[in-house]
Amino acid sequence: MTDHQVVNRDEWAAAREDLLAREKEHTRMGDELARQRRELPWVRVEKEYGFDTDDGTQTLADLFDGRSQLLVYHFMFGPSYQAGCPTCSSMADTVDGALPHLHARDVTMTFVSQAPLQKLQAYKRRMGWKMPWISSAETDFHFDLG
Amino acid sequence: MLEAGVPPGIEHGASSSGTDATGYLTQGPGFSAFVLDDGVVYQTYATGARGLEFLMGYYPILDRAPKGRDEGDGAQPWIRRHDEY
């Protein structure tokens, strides 16, 4: 027998209505936060980075890949790692399926790690991902923005 | 140096990534956003820690299951790579 509160369906519907009001409040607050996030001031990236990518050495501007917005996830895969961090891997699972929808909104998303590109490529094959994944091994990017 | 008091989440992350706690902790997760405007790159946003949960698509799903995330406090001790469960 459960020790959780159990009620009839009418009482349940009333309790759920109350929670719905809170959920709607949360949604609207989320919209407002997103608006404030977009209004943050920008900071110019002055430094030139040379990332190791599937298409050779690329700059930060190159990574936009023809779009105007670039999202970067700093994936924990250091030089001494034999496999990517499990939590970061769970995020890649999420992002990988969303890529076509991000591209449709003028957004490029890429993953960056400090391990050599070859290690990243092999692990990406194992996990079956398609997202771009670049190595910042030869740059200060990890220390500047990681 | 870290051997005495490595938190279980770090231990799990390090051993499952084939490195030790010191090597594991040279890295940290993060998210950054940039815009390209007239050939100039600007950073517009950055976040880390629990500010990264939006990238974990399973969390909002679990939050609607009867037992929720069911993981207690601290770093996800249950998480595995999708081919390791």
Topology summary:
The complex is a heterodimer of chains A (146) and B (85).
Chain A lengths: L8 H30 L4 E2 L6 E3 L2 E3 L10 E6 L11 H18 L3 E7 L3 H11 L5 E3 L5 H5 L1
Parallel strand pairs in A: 4-5, 5-6
Antiparallel strand pairs in A: 2-3
Chain B lengths: L7 H9 L4 H4 L5 E8 L2 E8 L10 H5 L23
Antiparallel strand pairs in B: 1-2
Tally of separate domains of chain B: 1
Q: What pair of chains forms the biggest interface? A: A-B, 44 and 42 residues
Low-confidence stretches of chain B: none
Low-confidence stretches of chain A: none
Helix content of chain A: 40-55%
What does this structure look like?
The complex is a heterodimer of chains A (146) and B (85). Chain A has 2 domains: 40 residues; 95 residues, Glutaredoxin (3-Layer(aba) Sandwich), CATH 3.40.30. Helices cover 44% and strands 16% of the residues of chain A. In chain A, the strands form 2 sheets. Chain A has a 3-stranded parallel β-sheet. Chain A is elongated, with a radius of gyration of 21 Å. Chain B has 85 residues and is an alpha+beta fold. Chain B has one domain. In chain B, 21% of the residues lie in helices and 19% in strands. The chains are: A alpha/beta (146), B alpha+beta (85). The interface between A and B is large, with 44 and 42 residues. β4 of chain A pairs antiparallel with β1 of chain B, so a sheet runs across the interface.
